[in-house]
Amino acid sequence: MRLQNAALGAAGLTAFLALGEAVPRLGLVKEDYFPPTSRVARAFAGELSDGAFWTALGDTLTGWALGLAIAASAGIVVGVVVSVVPYLREATASTIEFLRPIPSVALIPLAVLLYGSELRSVLLLVVYAAFWQVLVQTVYGVQDVDPVADETARSYGLGTWARVRHVLWPTALPYVMTGVRLAAAVALILAITGELVIGAPGLGARIAVAQNSQAVPEMYALIVVTGLLGLLINVGARTVERRALSWHQSVRGEVAV
What we know:
Elements: H1 2-25, H2 37-48, H3 51-84, H4 88-99, H5 108-115, H6 119-143, H7 147-155, H8 160-198, H9 203-212, H10 216-244, H11 249-256
């Protein structure tokens, strides 16, 4: 099954690359705006040999990793506290529902005013966007705790933090891992968006420079890099999720299938 899926994925990718080569060659679009795959591949190889590209990649990964770590830590802690402390969930519900839908890109003017084009501007956007993904999933996970198990833990004299560790956390962990996986993708999107719009160092700023200088193949090559980066992050997040939840029924069932 895995070999079949890999073969189908490779066939789909090959067809996509062939389509990208054929469309401009056939004159359906102008090569100046949509270069063939072969030209993009040459530009991609040129980027890999450029030291400035690796510096930009490191800047993007730094903003992504720091922002995700801050957002995940804060989202888990706040989600658990809000759900465990009596009446705090009801007291904060309206505030959360007000702040959560605000797009992170709407905070770009604020980020520029506060930090200019520094890394902290990107972190502000990344943390704000990724935080809600983790927080909401954590709250849902805590609410899914079996009340019978919780009451049993209380009857055995377990304190609040003991119940959090032995009852609440195992139930909420699958939700938390889903939130972190979603937050990882969102964090990458906001990191590159912030660099692209604000001009902070990273792949986004490099894409903007390529666009402004009419280096179209290089621009598409950098876009391909961001896509590959997102794919690697998603695969890595799923791998971590499977290992962290190797004891969970959903993962055991997936492995069995």
